[in-house]
Each structure stands twice: as structure tokens, then as C-alpha cells.
Specification:
The complex is a heterodimer. By secondary structure, chain A is of the alpha+beta class. Chain A has four helices and five strands. Chain B has a nine-stranded antiparallel beta sheet, covered by helices on one side. The chains are: A alpha+beta, B alpha+beta. Chains A and B meet through helix 1 and helix 3 of A and strand 1, strand 3, strand 4, strand 5 and strand 6 of B.
């Protein structure tokens, strides 16, 4: 099995005491990775918060931009939380329409952009050489296998 | 959406366990919908429709800030990001359903009765969720069974319980203080994957001895335009996969105790 083969690890929801215990120890275990320098997403979550703090009021760009809402922030956090461990993290940006964007960029012809807004969908578009792909996934489903494959293609990782 | 059966072979039967260690069984359906979320209207609607689920709780999401200053100047702030779901519980506490933004989750707590009872109730509630949120597509479908196997006084190692147990450091004779093992497997020739989580849980109010968890979550993340027949067919296949994984994971020794 290639080491780059990754499947989403998110679990179906559950509520019993045993499920809560499993979730807590998984969270503790995940936290230690999230806080690590090499695998961590702590830094990018802080960047995301900083973008939100800069853009949560209407007109944040001085030109009538729409505010980034709680829903957008929540969806963006959920998306980041579903990225497989160790995956290269994207650059974050905000758009005048109130969306948050994540971008994986290697060159003008190898790039993938993800846009997240309040409607609960992840919109993505990629360019790898002459190959263009785009798609829509719900945030709730976690990151899709299709999107993981596209990100790996842009990053030049063979699966 | 997993039209093919792949390795799934319904002719293979599994033994019945009179002491099945299931503590929770779950159906989790995540959807895409254009219906606007309105928890106030939803709450009233569900209170009318689900009188047999009288306990209702809002699920809210928060963002926490802690200022970097130490001592009395340090500030903690919780920002409420809003209601993300409603959780309802039956009078006897055995059934729990979550009407979440983008996700329907139904749980049956122990004692587990049988698959027909479990899925009948799940589908009764799913029909209500479907009528309210009018899903365009199903984005993720999952069946999760959480097993808590009671520690046996005459079993001394994890190998007595799990066939593929988390290993100790064989070269070091040090006692294992705990473990958490989470594997994800792709089911060949299907769109299904399986989370398998193994860990140890301490005693609690109802279970007086330690337990070993075998948490099996079969899921598909392939988006599909559903029909109820599709969903039922997928759940039946997922149940088979769940059983196959369960009986592959436990030892004959523990199987005998659970029969």
C-alpha cells in the first residue's frame, strides 16, 4: 500500500458514554498532533481566526466587502479539521463576497483553490497543466477523496 | 454509490450472540440541502411531530479565545457561533436523534434489540428529517456499532480479546498503560471504508469493570441522489461489512463468552 494513500478518518456521530470517551481520547491524541510543529494545524487555525477578526465587519476591504459570518468561519474550521494529518496546509484569504479561500499553489499552472461560504458547501477548482477540474462538496461530509486526490496532484504527490 | 457488492457475500452468515456487547448503534446520514436553517421553527415542528421524544436539547458551537496576558488580566471569552442542531431523546432514553444542519444521526443505546427494530426507527425519523430538509443528495452515509467487551478476570492479555491487538514493546518488559488504535480500511470493489477503533475504557456508573472497545464505523463518502431503497440497500451491505469486521477482530475465546 502506498504511504500516500489516505482515507478520511472522521467517525459517524454517536452519543453514548463510550462514544464520548472514544471521542475525548481521540481529541487528546489529535491535539498533540495539532500542536506539533510538523503535523500541526494550530498555526493555520490561528491564521484563520486572524482573517476572521480582520473581516467580520461589512466593508472590511474599504470597498463594501461582505462580512465573513460565523457560519463561514465554522465551515472553514470544519474543513481544515478534516484535512488528513501531514497534508501540506493552504494559504488563507478572504473574498469580498464573504467567502474564505484556501489555496494550494505550486505554479501558475499547478494550483487549487477552495472557496467556503455560508451555504455549507466547499467549492473547488484546480489547474494541473492543461487539466482543469472543479467541483462542489458539502462541508459536513468532510474533505472528499476527490479533493484529496486533486490536492495531491497539484502538490505533485503520487497516490 | 456502491452499486456493486464487491467482497460482500450475503451467503456468509454470522453467529448470533446472546450477550452482544453493543453499547450504541448509529445511522449517520449527511446531506446537501438548500433549506434555510431555522432552529426555532424546527424545534416547534419536532415537538409536534415527535411527542415520543420529549427531551430536546440545542447543540451549539462556540469559539474560545484566551488572551496571552497572565494573572488577573488574562481573559477567557466564549463566542457563540450559533445553534447547529437539535438533539431529541425518547422517554426511556434508549433512542437519540439529532436533526443537525446537514446531518441526520440516529442512535440506539444498549440494550440493542435487532437490526429490524433499529432500522425501522431510524427510517421513521429519517422520513421526518427528509420532509423538513428536502435533501438534494446524500453526501456521507455511515453505520457505526460501538462494542464494549467487559474485561474477563481470567484473561490476561489483549491477545485474549483482539486477534490483531495493539502490541506491547516486546523487547521491553514494561506494562502497557493504555492504547488507542484507529485503522481505516477500504472495502475492496466498493465505495465503502471502515473505521476500526480499539481502546480500553475505565469502569463507570453502569459498567463496574474495565472494558475493551471495538468501535466499527462503516461509511461511504460518495455523493449520490438517493432513494429510500438505495439507502436501505446500502445499510444492509454496511451491516454485513460491520459484522465481517467484528468477527474478524475478536478471538474465538471471547466469542465463546459472548455466545
Amino acid at each position: 500500500m502506498p504511504l500516500s494513500f489516505l482515507l478520511p478518518m472522521s467517525l459517524s456521530g454517536a452519543t453514548s458514554p463510550v462514544a464520548v470517551y472514544v471521542e475525548e481520547i481521540q481529541k487528546d491524541s489529535r491535539e498533540s498532533l495539532v500542536n506539533s510543529a510538523i503535523f500541526g494545524t494550530r498555526g493555520i487555525l490561528e491564521q484563520l481566526d486572524a482573517v476572521y477578526e480582520d473581516c467580520f465587519l461589512p466593508g472590511w476591504d474599504g470597498n463594501g466587502a461582505k462580512a465573513i459570518s460565523h457560519d463561514v468561519l465554522r465551515n472553514a474550521r470544519h474543513f481544515l479539521g478534516s484535512l488528513p494529518f501531514g497534508m501540506e496546509l493552504p494559504e488563507i484569504g478572504a473574498e469580498p463576497d464573504g467567502a474564505i479561500t484556501f489555496e494550494w499553489y505550486r505554479s501558475p499552472k499547478r494550483t487549487l483553490s477552495v472557496s467556503i461560504n455560508s451555504d455549507g458547501y466547499v467549492y473547488y477548482a484546480s489547474l494541473t497543466g492543461t487539466s482543469r477540474r472543479h467541483g462542489v462538496d458539502p462541508v459536513q461530509g468532510g474533505i472528499s477523496k476527490d479533493l484529496i486526490v486533486l490536492i495531491n496532484q497539484v502538490l505533485g504527490i503520487r497516490v | 454509490m456502491a452499486k456493486q457488492n464487491g467482497v460482500i457475500n450475503f451467503s456468509e452468515q454470522f453467529p448470533h450472540l446472546s450477550q452482544a456487547p453493543i453499547v450504541e448503534s448509529v445511522v449517520d446520514i449527511r446531506i446537501a440541502s438548500d433549506v434555510k436553517w431555522d432552529e426555532i421553527t424546527l424545534k416547534k415542528d419536532l415537538q409536534n411531530r415527535l411527542k415520543d421524544y420529549p427531551k430536546i436539547e440545542e447543540l451549539r458551537e462556540f469559539r474560545y479565545h484566551v488572551s496571552v496576558a497572565s494573572g488577573p488580566d488574562q481573559q477567557h471569552k466564549a463566542e457563540d457561533l450559533g445553534c447547529v442542531g437539535l438533539k431529541l431523546q425518547s422517554e426511556d432514553g434508549l433512542h437519540i436523534v439529532q436533526f443537525n444542519q446537514g446531518a441526520f444521526v440516529f442512535s440506539r443505546l444498549k440494550p440493542y434489540q435487532d437490526w429490524n427494530q433499529f432500522t425501522s426507527e431510524a427510517f421513521r425519523l429519517w422520513e421526518i428529517y427528509r420532509a423538513i430538509f428536502r435533501p438534494i443528495t446524500v453526501q456521507r452515509l455511515g453505520v457505526r456499532f460501538i462494542n464494549r467487551i467487559p474485561a474477563q478476570s481470567d484473561f490476561s492479555t489483549l491477545e485474549d480479546y483482539y486477534k490483531n491487538s495493539p502490541r506491547e514493546l516486546a523487547e521491553l518488559d514494561w506494562p502497557q498503560g493504555g492504547f488507542l488504535m484507529h485503522n481505516v480500511f477500504q472495502v475492496p470493489e466498493t465505495d465503502y471504508a471502515v473505521n476500526v477503533v480499539k481502546t480500553r475504557v475505565p469502569p463507570n456508573a453502569t459498567d463496574k469493570e474495565h472494558g475493551l472497545v471495538l468501535d466499527i464505523d462503516v461509511y461511504s463518502q460518495s455523493s449520490f441522489t438517493y432513494t429510500d431503497e438505495d439507502l436501505k440497500s446500502c445499510l444492509t451491505k454496511m451491516r454485513w461489512v460491520k459484522n465481517k469486521v467484528f468477527y474478524t477482530c475478536i478471538t474465538d475465546k471471547i466469542l465463546e463468552r459472548l455466545k
